[in-house]
Write a structure and sequence with these properties.
The complex is a heterodimer of chains A (139) and B (596). Chain A has seven helices and no strands. By secondary structure, chain A is mostly helical. Chain B has 596 residues and is mainly alpha-helical. Chain B folds into four domains: 88-172 and 221-350, no CATH class; 363-400, no CATH class; 403-489, no CATH class; 498-596, no CATH class. In chain B, helix 3 packs antiparallel against helix 7. Classes of the chains: A mainly alpha (139), B mainly alpha (596).
Chain lengths: 139, 596
């Protein structure tokens, strides 16, 4: 997990969608985190850690698919428990804000994809021009 | 009277030859000498006309003396009427007025009870339309004023008397004029030199004496008329004062309001007729003085003119005074109406607003009104309840109108003002606050500012002080419209009263107050914090973090907020606890210094 200063995190916070901003500090999210931890049997001192990781996902600095693994590593719990927690978080906390989350991570994916996509297209174009033996040459 | 007139008529019929003969001599005396005067004829004419002319002149001189006496009498009567010795009874407090008022006042009080019952019944039976509702405040005002109607009349009469006295204290009741006329008579006698009799001079003297007698009698009549008007003024004002309670009460109902108008017109006319009459008497007196100065020094015309002109002027003044009394009063009424419409509307609105504000903000009045508005009809049996139902219904209605109703109307005014100002820019809102003339306008402007999150800007850039805000908050409290202001600029004691959805309205200034922040850390929960962060973001979190760190045993004092901080997903943005302590401390310090 990358280290961000508070100022940096607040700058990130300012740029995320409104629904996610509200979700981060909402009482409902806090209550849901508390009840998930209680149901799964997470020790109370670990509640804040789980809340922190959920916050990271909502801020867009931890992809949702990496949450389970991070919980497993950070809380040092087994895979099954981490999976259970992850599923509950996904269903209860992330599902209501799924469109905003998808949009947020899609942006990030697009940003990384664009870096790699451009040379590939050039290669394909080159290949198609040189390698297609059935294609008649253009004057 | 008729018989004496007949006798005079018969005398003229029978003695017409004698009269014709005398007239002929007079005319001959006037015209002939100037035209065809010859020395041989002149002595004859003089000789023939001497005896009749002297006889006529003597009779006329006696009559002139009598007429001067009459004129003097007229002047005396006027002086007496105008003097304080004529009557020392007050216009509004004398036995006659007291007897009259002892009849009209109880009658009016009965009338008021009937109107009250009428208003109550229409209210209970829900027949009350807008007009009937409007009657209640008029009714209350009139009910209060009706017993003071003689005092109000006294004020108006006194005002007119001050003006009138300004003129009448200067006049001599025709004394100056009478003395002038007397001197005219003396001058005429001086003109006639009976030893050196000349028919022309004799005829001129006779003519002048006739004019003098006419002028004297005319003056006598005019002075009596003036005296009569001033006398009748006393009686008219007494009568109008006696009727004043009825007139005031008749103003309540639209159907009877015409009686009030008639009474008011009459009262103003009779009060101010003294002023116009006094003015013309004064003017006549001054004219006498002036005509003595400007009149030709010699000749019969020069002798008659100083007396004749002021009398004519007085007569015209009297006629004009009578008509202008009515005209003037109607103009006063017209002017009052016009001015009343123009400025009365504004003043009325201002007074109404101020009055409503005063009543709505007076704790004592509100306590009484609240009791009245919520009072239960007393009585255990149905008939006692029925008997008490009308007065109690009226009491409840009055209590509601001046109590919760008035507070509610002020609150509505504030809400309307807020709506108008919401969404406007900060300049407009601050300008509205500074221009406000009523407390409700000020509250509306500040509320709009708070709702639009412009308060911090107004404090930082427009010099809005905390003291100003506190004063407006006090006003807003009276109308139960203080929630916005309390949320924005609370005291430490008010923090726990703030609802979660309003927590975001708290001003930056309030967040810098350590006592307030301490109270927040002790009493707010996650819902408040959620709202706070939505408005203030990092600054709000930093301020709260600082307050929590300075609150010993925080988790026990405010377990709800403590739990929220442990469970919130915004851990890394501020409530990180142990791990990020140093960083968050720095962050909080920066915030309090205004560096973020």
């Amino acid at each position: 997990m990358s280290e961000y200063t508070k100022e940096q995190l607040w700058k990130i916070y300012e740029n995320i969608p409104k629904e996610l901003k509200e979700a981060i500090f909402s009482v409902e999210t806090a209550d849901n985190i508390h009840s998930i931890c209680l149901k799964v049997g997470v020790k109370e001192e670990n509640n804040s850690k789980i809340a922190e990781l959920i916050g990271d996902v909502l801020l867009g600095i931890l992809p949702p698919e990496e949450l389970q693994k991070t919980i497993e590593n950070e809380l040092k719990i087994n895979e099954n428990s981490a999976k259970k927690i992850n599923q509950m978080i996904g269903r209860i906390i992330f599902l209501p804000v799924k469109p905003a989350l998808d949009k947020l991570y899609e942006k990030e994916e697009n940003a990384t994809e664009e870096k790699t996509k451009k040379p590939m297209i050039k290669k394909i174009e080159k290949k198609s021009v040189i390698g297609d033996k059935y294609q008649e040459p253009i004057e | 009277m008729n018989s004496s007139l007949k006798k005079i008529f018969h005398f003229f019929l029978l003695k017409k030859r004698v009269i014709l003969f005398i007239s002929l001599f007079i005319l001959l005396g006037i015209f002939l000498p100037g035209q065809t005067a010859h020395a041989q004829w002149q002595w004859l004419i003089n000789a023939v006309t001497y005896i009749p002319m002297v006889t006529i002149s003597l009779v006329l001189v006696i009559l002139a003396g009598l007429s001067t006496l009459f004129a003097g009498f007229g002047g005396m009567v006027l002086n007496w009427v105008l003097s304080s010795s004529f009557i020392d009874w007050s216009y509004t407090k004398n036995p006659i007025v007291e007897i009259g008022l002892s009849i009209t006042l109880p009658l009016v009080n009965m009338f008021l009870v009937l109107i009250l019952v009428f208003i109550a019944l229409t209210t209970i039976l829900r027949l009350a339309g807008y007009e009937t509702k409007k009657l209640l405040p008029i009714f209350i005002l009139i009910a209060l004023l009706v017993n003071f109607s003689p005092v109000i009349c006294g004020l108006i009469v006194d005002a007119s008397n001050i003006l009138m006295d300004f003129f009448t204290s200067e006049i001599t009741g025709g004394e100056r004029l009478i003395s002038t006329l007397k001197s005219v008579g003396d001058a005429l006698l001086g003109v006639v030199d009976w030893k050196k009799f000349d028919v022309k001079t004799g005829a001129e003297t006779v003519l002048a004496l006739i004019v003098l007698i006419g002028v004297n009698f005319a003056l006598f009549l005019i002075l009596l008329l003036f005296a009569f008007i001033f006398m009748v003024r006393y009686l008219a004002i007494w009568l109008l004062v006696i009727l004043s309670p009825l007139a005031f009460a008749s103003y309540i109902l639209p159907a009877t309001r015409s009686f009030w108008k008639i009474w008011w017109n009459q009262f103003i006319q009779w009060s101010f007729i003294g002023v116009t009459m006094g003015f013309f008497l004064y003017l006549g007196d001054q004219f006498t003085m002036l005509s003595n100065v400007i009149a030709p020094a010699s000749g019969i015309g020069g002798v008659i003119l100083p007396g004749l002109v002021p009398v004519v002027f007085l007569y015209l003044g009297f006629v004009f005074g009578i008509t202008s009394g009515a005209m003037g009063s109607s103009q006063i009424i017209g002017f009052a109406k016009k001015t009343g419409k123009k400025y009365g509307g504004k003043i009325g609105k201002w007074t109404k607003n101020r009055g409503a504000e005063y009543i709505a903000s007076s704790e004592k009045v509100q306590q009484i009104a609240k009791k009245m508005a919520t009072a239960q009809t007393p009585g255990k049996r149905w008939w006692t309840k029925a008997a008490a139902s009308v007065p109690w219904a009226v009491s409840r209605k009055v209590g509601h109108t001046i109590g919760p109703g008035l507070v509610d109307s002020q609150r509505k005014l504030i809400e309307e003002g807020e709506k108008k100002l919401s969404g406007k820019n900060i300049d407009y809102q601050v300008s509205a606050l500074r221009r406000a003339t009523t407390s409700s306008q000020r509250v509306a402007a500040l509320n709009a500012m708070i709702k639009d999150n412009n308060l911090d800007d107004a404090i930082d850039n427009y010099g809005l002080t905390r003291e100003e805000i506190e004063n407006i908050k006090l006003d807003a409290k009276k109308y139960n419209s203080d929630k916005e202001i309390v949320s924005a600029m609370p005291s430490a004691q008010e923090i726990e009263k703030i609802r979660p959805q309003r927590a975001g309205q708290i001003s930056k200034k309030a967040l810098e107050d350590k006592e307030i922040m301490k109270a927040i850390a002790n009493s707010w929960d996650g819902r408040h914090v959620q709202s706070l962060i939505q408005t203030h973001g990092a600054k709000g979190v930093a301020a709260l973090e600082g307050a929590i760190k300075n609150t010993p045993d925080f988790s026990n004092k405010n377990p709800a907020l403590s739990q929220f901080i442990k469970d919130t997903a915004g851990q890394r943005l501020g409530f990180g606890g142990g791990k990020g302590d140093k960083k968050s401390d720095e962050f909080a310090k920066k915030w309090l210094k205004g560096g973020l």
